[in-house]
Amino acid sequence: MKHTKGEKVFQVFNIIIMLLVCCLMVYPYLNQVAISFNEGIDAMKGGIGIFPREFTWANYKAIFSTKSMYTGAVVSVSITVLHTLLCLVVLFASAYGITRRGLPYRRGLTLFLMLPCYVSAGVVPTYIIYRYLGLINSYWIYILPGCFSFYNMVILRSFLQELPASIEESAKLDGANDIQIMYKIALPLSKPVLATITLWVAVGRWNNWTDAMMYITDRKLFPLSYIMMQLIKESSLAQQMADDSGMITSVAKPTPDTIKAATLVVTTLPIIMVYPFLQKYFIKGVTLGAVKG
């Protein structure tokens, strides 16, 4: 098929614009990677692009020399996996139930589930509830709260509503009950939207450090994100004390800026490694799951 001159010009400009957008998206991350591998005092001068000016491993050594780093990594990986799996079970079961036309008070139940999106009890009542439930200083504080998200449930429900009704009718004619239809038909067909929700939930759980700050005092239960945040604060405080005393030259080579950059790389690398395997499902899930509200 031959393209007209106008179509060719449009394709060229489209490719150029998309390349520019890609560069704008990728450059900030590559810049942080370069800073993370750059010597701290030299990085304070600025002017670093996508390549380090004075290469060093000192920033990453400073991060991984922390004793709690490895226990924090184990905690982060385990809570991310368990929380994501539990979320998928709860969300899929609730979304599938809401789509059943024979469910009594279906609209009222949907409205009831939607109310917490607009009305929140606040931090203090939430803390009191968690304390009475025995979740304070507990590993399960990371996993049980937040398993249900109305927004994610709506996305999943919208996807399930788009599945042809003839598939369910054929399964019922073959003698399948609702549970069998749910796990043998609806679940396999929902892989795209489930992969999308998996990515959303896992990224949110992996990056969350506020739960540890508000509900955890046992250092053995600190996730990696909270340990990284503490490390950044400590390096910033050390830098400020050195600046106030006028002894900048005596500061260790890692600086707050290089520590932040190295922390960013360490915390985002697992997500970047997982995303390519979920990309095709992610795009399809977002598109199909957003057809209806």
What does this 3D model show about the protein?
The protein is mainly alpha-helical. It has a single domain (61-289), classed as MetI-like (MetI-like fold, Orthogonal Bundle). It is built from 13 helices and no strands. It has helices spanning 5-36, 40-43, 58-64, 68-98, 106-114, 123-132, 150-161, 165-173, 178-189, 191-207, 210-215, 224-245, 256-289. Residues 289-293 have low confidence and may be disordered.
CATH fold descriptor: MetI-like fold
CATH structural architecture: Orthogonal Bundle
The structural class is mainly alpha
Largest sheet: none
Number of helical elements: 13
What is the beta-strand fraction? under 5%
- Taken together, the total number of domains comes to 1
Number of strands: 0
How far apart are the first and last residues' alpha carbons, in Å? 39 Å
Order of helices and strands: HHHHHHHHHHHHH
Tell me, what is the CATH class? Mainly Alpha
Low-confidence residue ranges: 289-293
Report the helical percentage: 55-70%
Question: What number is the mean pLDDT?
Answer: 81
C-alpha-based Rg, rounded: 25 Å
In a nutshell, what does this entry contain?
This protein has 293 residues and is mainly α. The protein has 13 helices and no strands. 70% of the residues lie in helices and 0% in strands.
